[in-house]
């Protein structure tokens, strides 16, 4: 406990020293530059020691950011050479996207191959999912275009080391043709994510239409591939602290601390946009569907809190399903809508991706028209389907998509610096949105029980004991 307190105190010292360094140029308290540098490195050493004790990947990413920023500030010449670390990480991430998206989409669609069984409820759920996520997409676009959180970054140091980047001018027919693959191997090699998605969707529909004896082996293979890619992603993410540290060292060494202020502005933009989405979209939907708000809020408080604290939708899933049953949603509706929503109704993630994608373009100094922004975030919305359970899934999707739109990757690493704080909010909204979707579909089906009283397990046990005693 004493060591933990010391590490936290050292972290505060580091933050204070960094603020004094950046804002006062050592003049505010007459600090000696050498003494300030030594104090910062001692604080970093304490934080690294604490990270070794905690063994948390998220915490290690934060520590690597601090170390990378310090290296970039103190040793800019060395920091520039560390870009190779972020490039290695970026390449590894790019290898994940095609097999992961293919496998998860095939399992998600063909896994519910009996379309008669899915029936009317499935169609209603999918219509609801796409309408709500589209609202999330537009709110995200409006927020980032209003705050322009990525604008104003000095890219003079980056320009010499990157190819000339520009938005590709395409006609409507070019955009439509670009969606459909002509050679799936070529699409994978060139990183054309949307083409992989289209191929996977058509493949899954075809798989759902074949006889069970032919469908089952391919579905099992896709499930195996999906599980392997989840583990592959876990392995690659162990390299994330090194890649993020190298990227931030390079960024700070080239451009100073300005990009970090833009990242903080992006964080505030996300929280404000998510709040607006809840109040302007989810709340009116709940009122229109006549969902009992007080009971609904009481029921979802625990699963949403779990999602916020753990940044894991899966951790909150069992409790969320129980909560929806407790307010009168039939189990068969919960069992279908909730898991499906985890693949197709990622409201918080969709909003976040629209913000992050345009932030990357703004940071790179590329002015995208509204139509180009729509195409990019529509691609992100499609590619994010089915990968909710993947650690850092948003990073994988975002990196692959911005690359296919000729955008640089270095702003994504700036975003990753605050990704843990952003992940908490977007995961909580994902769970909230899926809980509401379950209740809305139940109401739409005419199966929502308004005066439902959840059984009390204590009373049930008492009645069972009484019955046994009677017999």
UniProtKB/TrEMBL annotation:
InterPro entries: Na-dicarboxylate_symporter (IPR001991), Na-dicarboxylate_symporter_CS (IPR018107), Na:dicarbo_symporter_sf (IPR036458). The chain crosses the membrane at residues 34-52, 59-80, 92-113, 125-146, 193-211, 232-252, 264-289, 351-375, 395-418. Its main location: membrane. PROSITE patterns: NA_DICARBOXYL_SYMP_2. It comes from the Bacteria. The keyword Signal does not apply. It is a multi-pass membrane protein. Keywords: Cell membrane, Membrane, Symport, Transmembrane, Transmembrane helix, Transport. It is found in: Cell membrane. This is Cation:dicarboxylase symporter family transporter. It comes from Hymenobacter guriensis. The lineage of its organism: Bacteria, Pseudomonadati, Bacteroidota, Cytophagia, Cytophagales.
């Amino acid at each position: 406990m004493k060591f933990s307190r010391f590490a936290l105190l050292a972290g505060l010292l580091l933050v204070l020293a960094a603020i004094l360094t950046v804002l006062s140029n050592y003049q505010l308290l007459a600090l000696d530059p050498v003494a300030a540098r030594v104090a910062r490195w001692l604080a970093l050493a304490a934080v690294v020691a604490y990270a070794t004790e905690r063994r948390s990947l998220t915490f290690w990413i934060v520590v690597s950011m601090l170390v990378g920023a310090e290296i970039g500030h103190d040793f800019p010449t060395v920091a520039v050479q560390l870009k190779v670390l972020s490039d290695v990480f970026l390449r590894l991430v790019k290898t994940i996207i095609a097999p992961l998206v293919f496998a998860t989409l095939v399992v998600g669609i063909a896994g519910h191959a009996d379309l008669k069984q899915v029936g009317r409820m499935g169609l209603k759920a999918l219509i609801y999912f796409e309408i709500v996520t589209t609202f999330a997409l537009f709110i995200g676009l409006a927020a980032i275009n209003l705050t322009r959180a990525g604008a104003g970054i000095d890219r003079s140091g980056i320009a010499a080391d990157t190819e000339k980047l520009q938005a590709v001018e395409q006609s409507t027919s070019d955009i439509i043709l670009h969606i459909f693959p002509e050679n799936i191997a070529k699409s994978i090699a060139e990183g054309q994510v949307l083409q992989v998605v289209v191929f996977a969707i058509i493949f899954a529909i075809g798989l759902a239409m074949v006889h069970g004896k032919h469908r089952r082996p391919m579905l099992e293979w896709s499930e195996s591939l999906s599980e392997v890619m989840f583990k592959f992603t876990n392995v690659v993410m162990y390299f994330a602290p090194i890649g993020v540290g190298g990227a931030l060292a390079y960024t700070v060494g080239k451009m100073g601390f300005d990009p970090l202020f833009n990242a903080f502005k992006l964080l505030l933009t996300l929280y404000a946009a998510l709040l607006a989405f809840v109040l302007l979209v989810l709340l009116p939907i709940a009122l229109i569907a006549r969902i009992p708000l007080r009971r609904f809020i009481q029921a979802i408080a625990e699963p949403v809190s779990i999602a916020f604290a753990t940044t894991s939708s899966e951790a909150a899933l069992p409790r969320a399903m129980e909560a929806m049953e407790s307010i009168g949603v039939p189990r068969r509706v919960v069992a279908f809508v909730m898991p499906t929503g985890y693949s197709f109704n990622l409201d918080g993630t969709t909003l976040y991706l629209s913000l992050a994608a345009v932030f990357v373009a703004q940071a790179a100094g590329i002015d995208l028209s509204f139509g180009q922004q729509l195409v990019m975030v529509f691609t992100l919305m499609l590619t994010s389907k089915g990968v909710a359970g993947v650690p850092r899934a948003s990073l994988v999707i975002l990196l692959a998509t911005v690359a296919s739109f000729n955008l640089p990757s270095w702003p994504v690493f700036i975003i990753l610096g605050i990704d843990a704080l952003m992940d908490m909010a977007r995961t909580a909204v994902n769970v909230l949105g899926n809980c509401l979707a379950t209740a809305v579909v139940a109401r739409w089906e005419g199966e929502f029980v308004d005066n439902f009283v959840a059984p009390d397990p204590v009373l049930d046990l008492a009645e069972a004991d009484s019955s046994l005693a009677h017999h």
